[in-house]
């Protein structure tokens, strides 16, 4: 098992990105060797990096549990809104970041945004603005919303009206949005109608718009605002981050993968407009009530697990039934 151990040592220090196959290969090795503790260590590590598993991986896990560890495992459909598992009678969990992890993430984003003295000043100004006007319930990646359904390469411009409909949707539900957009979208040369300019003035009056400075990536601003709002949120309120950008860009890899994936799973919201018409209402894919990710069935038991399928939505492998395999 020397190689697998080395791989996991590296992964522990985040030197390499481990793939799903690396984990299942290790599970097979440790399982076949009867190394129970190692199997559970691999699962704990895997659960932080690989959220859903292919059918092949689920089969590898199932075999490890039943054949090698003499534990039960069975495929079951679970509705992540309801959470209950019919096989073990336990509920899926909602796994969010601890305060310390949120602080860690904020410090990290802050560090990345401060590439120079000017940028550091701009970011401090932003944080000051946030503490005066926040926290917000929903952070909206304005450019991502405004360019939805648009083809900038064919001369389409950002739709301020589309952004406004998203803002209104949340306001109508008593949720306070924060719109983060780069300053170039508000310059004198920006393609805006009179009605667009009126909307922008309204956003400014309502203190829900933050226009990010030139020569800085607006991504760090909305991500910081979203994580900060999560940190400030009172119990029972849920902070949302609206964007279809999956943040797979290389620069997001500077963030701690574990914290970022964890935050994204609980707070990310994808949006959709059926068409470009002025009356087209946005629709949203909110995070499910319970986390759709590989998880311990109860936090204090390393041997009881639920694994969601990446191939079949709603299908899970329940390895949380106590007693010998049937
Ligand atoms: Zn179960």
TrEMBL record:
<dbReference type="GO" id="GO:0004526">
    <property type="term" value="F:ribonuclease P activity"/>
</dbReference>
<keyword id="KW-0809">Transit peptide</keyword>
<feature type="domain" description="PRORP">
    <location>
        <begin position="81"/>
        <end position="312"/>
    </location>
</feature>
<keyword id="KW-0862">Zinc</keyword>
<keyword id="KW-0479">Metal-binding</keyword>
<feature type="region of interest" description="Disordered">
    <location>
        <begin position="278"/>
        <end position="297"/>
    </location>
</feature>
<dbReference type="GO" id="GO:0046872">
    <property type="term" value="F:metal ion binding"/>
</dbReference>
<keyword id="KW-0378">Hydrolase</keyword>
<dbReference type="InterPro" id="IPR033495">
    <property type="entry name" value="MRPP3_PIN_dom"/>
</dbReference>
<keyword id="KW-0496">Mitochondrion</keyword>
<dbReference type="GO" id="GO:0005739">
    <property type="term" value="C:mitochondrion"/>
</dbReference>
<dbReference type="InterPro" id="IPR031595">
    <property type="entry name" value="PRORP_C"/>
</dbReference>
<dbReference type="GO" id="GO:0001682">
    <property type="term" value="P:tRNA 5'-leader removal"/>
</dbReference>
<comment type="similarity">
    <text>Belongs to the PPR family. P subfamily.</text>
</comment>
<dbReference type="Pfam" id="PF16953">
    <property type="entry name" value="PRORP"/>
</dbReference>
<protein>
    <recommendedName>
        <fullName>PRORP domain-containing protein</fullName>
    </recommendedName>
</protein>
């Amino acid at each position: 098992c020397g190689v697998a151990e080395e791989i996991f040592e590296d992964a522990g220090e985040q030197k390499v990105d481990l793939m799903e196959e690396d984990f299942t290969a290790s599970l097979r090795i440790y399982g076949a060797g009867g190394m129970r503790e190692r199997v559970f260590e691999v699962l704990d590590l895997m659960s932080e990096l690989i959220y859903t598993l292919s059918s092949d991986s689920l089969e590898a896990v199932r075999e490890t549990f039943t054949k090698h560890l003499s534990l039960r495992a069975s495929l079951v459909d679970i509705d992540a809104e309801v959470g209950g598992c019919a096989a073990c009678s336990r509920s899926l969990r909602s796994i969010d970041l601890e305060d310390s992890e949120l602080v860690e993430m904020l410090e990290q984003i802050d560090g990345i945004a401060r590439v120079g003295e000017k940028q550091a000043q701009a970011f401090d100004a932003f944080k000051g603005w946030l503490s005066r006007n926040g926290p917000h319930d929903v952070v909206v990646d304005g450019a991502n919303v405004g360019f939805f359904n648009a083809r900038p390469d064919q001369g389409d411009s950002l739709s301020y009206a589309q952004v406004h409909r998203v803002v209104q949707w949340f306001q109508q539900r008593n949720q306070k949005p924060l719109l983060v957009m780069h300053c170039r979208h508000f310059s004198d040369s920006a393609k805006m109608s009179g009605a667009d300019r009126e909307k922008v003035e309204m956003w400014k009056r309502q203190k829900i718009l933050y226009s990010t400075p030139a020569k800085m990536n607006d991504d760090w601003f909305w991500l910081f605002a979203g994580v900060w709002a999560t940190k400030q949120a009172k119990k029972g309120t849920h902070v949302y981050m609206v964007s279809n950008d999956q943040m797979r860009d290389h620069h997001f890899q500077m963030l701690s993968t574990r914290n970022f994936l964890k935050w994204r799973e609980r707070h990310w919201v994808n949006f959709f407009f059926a068409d470009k018409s002025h009356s087209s209402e946005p629709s949203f894919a909110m995070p499910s009530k319970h986390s759709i990710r590989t998880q311990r069935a109860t936090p204090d038991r390393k041997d009881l697990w639920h694994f969601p399928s990446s191939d079949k939505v709603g299908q899970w492998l329940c390895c949380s039934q106590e007693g010998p395999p049937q």
